[in-house]
């Protein structure tokens, strides 16, 4: 009798797991499938929603559309190459050598990751605009030359700035792979007589290659889908990229059908590339993780240590030191590109932004609300999906995993268009509220959050949960009491990651904001269009301070290489 | 010489009169409501609402200063200024109204033709401030009382005095086509800025599209807002401004920056910026109060003095030391013409300048 009762107890308790999980699945489907469906519908129909291919014919016979397509391809390819060339050596130096200041270099790369690309672009305007740019002024002063050293308003300039804020993605993957690489393999090579270079060529590089390829792909996608940097640097130079072109189709009268159709090539290309990566790498990317290996021994660099450090610092001059210096200077200078001196320093810009600029408070409030809520909801969502897929709780767990990864194939501006089409009409009229931005930010950040937490889950053996359930806990209780505490670090890292992602995001927000739902990134972009550079500098610094404060408050900054927090937009 | 105030006669002399009888003067003028002054009752009602959302394209620093002046005049009402290019605002208003979002209370556009569309759509609320009825010429107010011209300004040429000697400076739009200015000019964009849209219309009408075609070959730095070229000029980023706010140049010059306006011999494009209240304004009384306050002599005088723009108000005097609008050869405004040509301008411009 007693035995039966005990065994029955858990069954009598209502296990809400399945309904809850199905609810999540339904939410995910609406979140991702709805905007993409509307996008496809608009791309293949005319104004009266009759099926047609005319949108594509219009686009692909128009040089005003084909040129940006070509430009975008060039930008994405070159940026990805530069990112790999820069990030791989730094990743290796930081992870595998005895170079001094390795932690500082990691922190500095984090800083360039936290810097929104559009802010970096504005900072580089201050530095390298052909005539007023401070670096060009310095160059002219030193050499007496007429021509500028560097014109940021050019294809080269744009590629440079995009690379500055994309290389952290490659760095993280490479450094991570090298951190996890078993030292024994290299030792074996050395014992068998392999010289340093042979070991590198036959062991280290092949093992790190999958990470590098994955990094290159992510860099390519990032460069291809960025909106802010091209809008700030390419338009003054008189050329469009795909994202700025799609956005210009929103001008009055909005050509939503064409915008949707123009988004399709970006979408297809992304899916193609992700498939290509799978085909290329198979499952090799995971082969280095497993078992207990000894930590790799750092390579002794001797006298080259300092040269290596100098190289890293020189590279980081571009995304961190110089831009931050330019922003600080502009914030306190009466003239954005004149070097501030103690006698000319002014608080005028700061006063203007915080007491006169009437959109500041609203944008700050919206951004912090959205950052915190997206991070919270996103972490929960990613947590559930990661749990379901690693523990295979419901039958369609694969589908759920796919849905959570799918947005990686949707560039921000494309998603923005899709969401705009979906949520400006019944049944969900969300345009004009913060909800539509929440959905956008959530979708954009879900893939990386999911990847991070899935990796975190994989490290926790299910037998701990099973033990809890045998002792009578429901699945949700087991999760709350056993798994959650073990996942703490990973969860916090993911939260911070999403928060940073929201601060960086402009491409979807620019399509979806209204006057009452403005965010900082959009405000900064607006200010750039009216040429108020000093106000941007102040707001940009405020934005960075908020980001760092929030991230530090929630926990330490997710240091790259620090376990689950390390994976960025992994795929 | 006796200081002349900017009167209706000046404006007519300046030939900036909006094609009278075509735009703002329609036969149904009897419909305009009774003029309203700033009354304690209106102030009280506005304070209850406590907030005002003002869409405008006025250069940010001066626009915010205007907002602060309003807040200071009526404590308890906060104003939120939504600044962007007028063409961008036009698109956003359209997008918001289509989605039933009625956030905007009141709008000042730098493209007067927008008010033709909004009037057609029936989106505007009739309201006539007392000063507008008494002191504004008929050409500058809607006969049905839906809007009134709050400011007039110019889109001129200008140069950086550190980079260009006065004797070398361009004197006319034709001068800008000289190869020596290639790669040295900056201009705004007509698909973003109402000022540039209006100016482009007038330039195309006077000089033809050939002028724009040739200008496009000069490797002009293309910024968006008409407020930006003066700033790029004062930074020394470019030597010459091909179009942009003349008032920005005047203000920068007065602040000691190395910039100098040039009023082209062909005539200077002239822009008037009407203000109107939306019927669906969430804060209608605050909007009325603002509209009444904005067009009083005091506010107009204050506005003219600190923004270096021009007022239609008959009693407003130009600031001593500043050039009078009557001394400048102006291009004629034609809001209806702009409305008909907007699409063509956007399309042809994008083809010529490639962005």
TrEMBL record, chain A:
CDD domains: TM_PBP2
Topology of the protein relative to the lipid bilayer: Multi-pass membrane protein
PROSITE patterns: ABC_TM1 (PS50928)
Transmembrane segments: 20-44, 69-92, 104-124, 152-175, 211-236, 256-274, 306-326, 368-388, 400-422, 428-446, 490-513, 533-554
Subcellular location: Cell inner membrane; Cell membrane
Protein name stated in the entry: Iron ABC transporter permease
Family matches, as SUPFAM superfamilies: MetI-like
Species per Swiss-Prot/TrEMBL record: Bradyrhizobium jicamae
InterPro entries: MetI-like (IPR000515), MetI-like_sf (IPR035906)
Domain ABC transmembrane type-1: 69-277, 364-554
Organism domain of life: Bacteria
GO cellular component: plasma membrane
BP-aspect Gene Ontology terms: transmembrane transport
Keyword set includes Nucleotidyltransferase: no
Alphabetically ordered keywords of this record: Cell inner membrane, Cell membrane, Membrane, Transmembrane, Transmembrane helix, Transport
Family, as annotated: Belongs to the binding-protein-dependent transport system permease family.
From TrEMBL, chain B:
Superkingdom field: Bacteria
Keywords: Iron, Metal-binding, Periplasm, Signal
Stored Pfam families: SBP_bac_1
Residue sites binding Fe cation per the record: 247
Signal peptide region: 1-25
PROSITE patterns: TAT
Gene3D superfamilies, A to Z: Periplasmic binding protein-like II
Molecular function via GO: metal ion binding
InterPro entries xref list: Ferric-bd, SBP, TAT_signal
Entry keyword Acetylation: no
SUPFAM superfamilies: Periplasmic binding protein-like II
Annotated protein name in UniProt: Iron ABC transporter substrate-binding protein
Species annotation: Bradyrhizobium jicamae
């Amino acid at each position: 009798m007693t035995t039966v009762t005990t065994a029955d107890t858990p069954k009598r308790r209502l296990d809400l797991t399945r309904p809850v999980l199905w609810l999540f699945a339904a939410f995910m489907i609406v979140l991702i499938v709805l905007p993409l469906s509307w996008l496809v519908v608009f791309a293949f129909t005319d104004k009266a929603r009759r099926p047609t291919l005319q949108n594509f014919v219009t686009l692909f016979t128009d040089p005003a559309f084909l040129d940006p397509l070509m430009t975008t391809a060039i930008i994405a390819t070159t940026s990805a190459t530069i990112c790999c060339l820069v990030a791989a050596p730094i990743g290796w130096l930081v992870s595998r050598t005895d170079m001094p200041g390795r932690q500082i270099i990691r922190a500095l790369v984090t800083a360039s990751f936290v810097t929104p690309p559009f802010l970096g672009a504005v900072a580089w305007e201050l530095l390298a605009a052909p005539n007023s740019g401070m670096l060009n002024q310095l160059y002219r002063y030193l050499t007496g030359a007429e021509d500028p050293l560097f014109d940021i308003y050019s294809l080269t300039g744009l590629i440079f700035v995009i690379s500055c804020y994309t290389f952290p993605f490659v760095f993280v993957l490479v450094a991570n792979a090298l951190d996890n690489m078993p030292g024994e393999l290299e030792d074996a090579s050395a014992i068998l007589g392999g010289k340093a270079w042979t070991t590198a060529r036959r062991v280290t590089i092949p093992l790190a290659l999958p990470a590098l390829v994955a990094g290159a792909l992510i860099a390519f996608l990032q460069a291809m889908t960025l909106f802010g940097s091209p809008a700030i640097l390419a338009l003054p130079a008189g050329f469009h990229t795909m994202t700025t072109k799609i956005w210009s189709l929103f001008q009055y009268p909005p050509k939503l059908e064409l915008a949707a159709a123009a988004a399709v090539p970006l979408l297809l290309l992304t899916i193609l590339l992700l498939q290509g990566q799978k085909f290329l790498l198979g499952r090799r990317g995971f082969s280095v993780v497993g078992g207990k290996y000894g930590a790799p021994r750092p390579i002794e660099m001797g006298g080259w240590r300092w040269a290596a450090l100098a190289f890293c610092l020189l590279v980081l001059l571009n995304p961190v030191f110089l831009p931050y210096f330019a922003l600080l200077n502009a914030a306190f200078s009466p003239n954005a590109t004149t070097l501030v001196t103690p006698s000319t320093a002014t608080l005028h810009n700061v006063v203007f932004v915080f007491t006169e600029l009437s959109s500041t408070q609203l944008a700050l409030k919206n951004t912090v609300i959205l950052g915190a809520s997206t991070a919270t909801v996103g972490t929960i969502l990613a947590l559930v999906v990661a749990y379901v897929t690693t523990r295979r709780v419901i039958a369609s767990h694969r589908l759920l995993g796919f849905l959570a990864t799918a947005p990686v194939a949707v560039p921000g501006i494309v998603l923005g268009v899709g969401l705009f089409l979906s949520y400006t009409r019944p049944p969900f009229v969300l345009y004009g509220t913060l909800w539509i931005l929440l959905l956008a930010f959530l979708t954009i950040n879900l893939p990386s959050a999911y990847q991070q937490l899935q990796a975190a889950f994989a490290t926790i053996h299910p037998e701990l949960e099973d033990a809890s359930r045998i002792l009578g806990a429901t699945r949700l209780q087991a999760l709350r009491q056993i798994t959650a505490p073990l996942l703490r670090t990973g969860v916090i890292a993911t939260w911070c990651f999403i928060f940073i992602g929201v601060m960086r995001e402009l491409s979807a927000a620019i399509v979806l904001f209204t006057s009452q739902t403005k965010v900082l990134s959009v405000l900064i972009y607006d200010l750039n269009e009216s040429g108020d550079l000093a106000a941007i500098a102040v707001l940009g610094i405020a934005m960075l301070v908020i980001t760092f404060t929030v991230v530090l408050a929630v926990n330490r900054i997710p240091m790259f290489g620090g376990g689950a927090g390390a994976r960025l937009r992994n795929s | 010489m006796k200081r002349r105030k900017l009167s209706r006669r000046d404006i007519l002399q300046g030939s900036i009169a909006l094609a009278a009888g075509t735009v703002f003067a329609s036969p149904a003028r009897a419909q305009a409501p009774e003029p309203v002054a700033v009354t304690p009752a209106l102030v009280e009602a506005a304070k209850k609402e406590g907030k005002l959302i003002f869409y405008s394209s006025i250069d940010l620093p001066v626009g915010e200063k205007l907002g602060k002046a309003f807040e200071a005049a009526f404590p308890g009402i906060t104003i939120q200024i939504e600044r962007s290019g007028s063409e961008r605002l036009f698109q956003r208003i359209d997008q918001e109204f289509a989605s039933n979002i009625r956030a905007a209370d009141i709008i000042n556009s730098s493209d007067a033709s927008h008010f033709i569309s909004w009037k057609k759509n029936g989106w505007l609320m009739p309201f006539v401030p007392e000063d507008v009825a008494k002191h504004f010429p008929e050409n500058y107010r809607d006969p049905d009382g839906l809007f009134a011209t709050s400011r007039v300004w110019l889109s001129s040429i200008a140069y950086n005095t550190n980079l260009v000697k006065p004797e070398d400076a361009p004197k006319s739009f034709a001068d800008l086509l000289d190869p020596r200015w290639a790669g040295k000019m900056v201009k705004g964009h007509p698909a973003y800025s109402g000022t540039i849209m209006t100016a482009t219309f007038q330039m195309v009408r006077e000089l033809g599209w050939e002028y724009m075609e040739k200008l496009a070959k000069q490797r002009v730095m293309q910024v968006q807002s008409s407020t930006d070229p003066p700033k790029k000029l004062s930074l020394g980023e470019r030597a010459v401004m091909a179009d942009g706010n003349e008032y920005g140049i005047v203000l920068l010059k007065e602040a000691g920056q190395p910039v100098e306006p040039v009023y082209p011999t062909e005539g200077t494009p002239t822009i008037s910026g009407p203000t109107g209240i939306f019927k669906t304004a969430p804060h209608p009384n605050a909007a009325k109060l603002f509209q009444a306050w904005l067009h009083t002599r005091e506010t107009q005088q204050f506005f003219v003095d600190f923004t270096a723009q021009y007022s239609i108000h008959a009693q407003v005097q130009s600031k001593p030391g500043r050039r009078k609008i009557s001394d400048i050869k102006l291009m004629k405004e034609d809001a209806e013409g702009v409305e008909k040509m907007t699409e063509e301008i956007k399309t042809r411009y994008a083809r010529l300048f490639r962005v």
